[in-house]
Design goal:
This protein is α/β, with parallel strands linked by helices. It has helices at residues 10-21, 33-41, 50-55, 71-80, 98-109, 126-129, 139-144, 146-152, 166-193, 201-208, 217-228, 244-254, 260-272, 278-291, and strands spanning 2-6, 25-29, 45-47, 62-65, 89-92, 114-121, 132-136, 158-162. Strand 2 (25-29), helix 2 and strand 3 (45-47) form a beta-alpha-beta unit. The N and C termini lie far apart (63 Å).
């Protein structure tokens, strides 16, 4: 099958390589000329402008976007529109807000174009292991794209979950759950680290993956990280968030669904970024005021 790929970052480049390896013709575009050349070197086709990119794809075109969520997706669509024709399909494989995906689908449908939101999970390991994909869109359009999904995903690794927006909604909840799982592992290993025992964390992570109820791929990755750096001394405890955790918590509030674990895991990420918490200063000062408890001077 033939398709275009916009965005050759860590995910987009690896997905392109997997598609090329699966026999698809992939025309690729990125602002970075070196990224385009790397794709050309593995058998893909490069384009150095969006206009040239669209011209090289046979109509009806299939274009997969792997660009950051928010304004970059809207800007990419806006730049593509003058060169597209009725029947063309745009796929957003990034971590977009599902409400944006519904809006974009309606906009494109009004111009005779199709939109598919493909929540994609797998990270840098997707090239080797395949990508788990949660797909939203018109059934007939999604069915026509199946050869692409079969190449990108492992067996049973993709699902048409519903209409436009459903793919990114399911991916959002997936990432919210991920926040909670990561926080649970982090807190557990912190307790191990605080114990009086001389524990080998990498071996414990390996042990827990042998039939334990907490076994998982994340725990395998923890074992790998701890083997490289047993006390994680080379890593600063600063944890970023890319949006999906926030959106999940907002959705829980909007729908009045209790999600305390997911919410607290998001707030824990905020706490990780504070080298000197003002809230902690206030608490320390109040303890000193009402109880004469000692404070540490900065």
């Amino acid at each position: 099958m033939e398709l275009g790929m916009i965005g050759l970052g860590r995910m987009g480049a690896n997905m392109t390589e997997r598609l090329v390896g699966g026999g698809h013709r992939v025309i690729s575009y990125d602002r970075n000329a070196e990224a385009i050349q790397r794709v050309v070197d593995i058998g893909g086709v490069g384009a150095h402008s969006l206009a040239d990119f669209v011209k090289q794809i046979t109509a009806p075109r299939v274009i997969w976007m792997m660009v950051p969520s928010g304004a970059p997706v809207d800007q990419t669509i806006e730049q593509l529109l003058p060169n597209l024709a009725k029947g063309d399909i745009l796929i957003d494989g990034g971590n977009s807000n599902y409400k944006d995906s519904i809006r974009r689908a309606q906009l494109l449908q009004g111009q005779g174009l199709h939109f598919v939101d493909a929540g994609t999970s797998g990270g840098v390991w997707g090239l080797e292991l395949g990508y788990c994909m949660m797909i939203g869109g018109e059934k007939g359009v999604v069915d026509a794209l199946e050869p692409i999904f079969k190449t990108l995903a492992p067996p049973d690794g993709y699902l048409h979950v519903g209409p436009n927006g459903a793919g990114h909604f399911v991916k959002m909840i997936h990432n919210g759950i991920e926040y909670g799982m990561l926080q649970a592992y982090g807190e557990g290993f912190e307790l191990l680290n605080a114990s009086q025992f001389d524990l080998d964390f990498a071996k414990i992570a390996h042990l827990w993956n042998q039939g334990s109820v907490v076994r998982s791929w994340l725990l395998e990755l923890a074992e790998s990280a701890l083997q490289k750096d047993p006390k994680l001394a080379g890593i600063k405890g600063y944890v970023e968030d890319s949006g999906e955790g926030r959106w999940t918590v907002e959705e829980a509030i909007e729908k009045s669904v209790p999600a305390p674990v997911l919410t607290l895991s998001l707030f824990a990420r905020y706490a990780s970024r504070q080298e000197d918490s003002f809230a902690a200063k206030v608490i320390a000062a109040l303890r000193n005021e009402f109880g004469g408890h000692a404070v540490k001077k900065s």
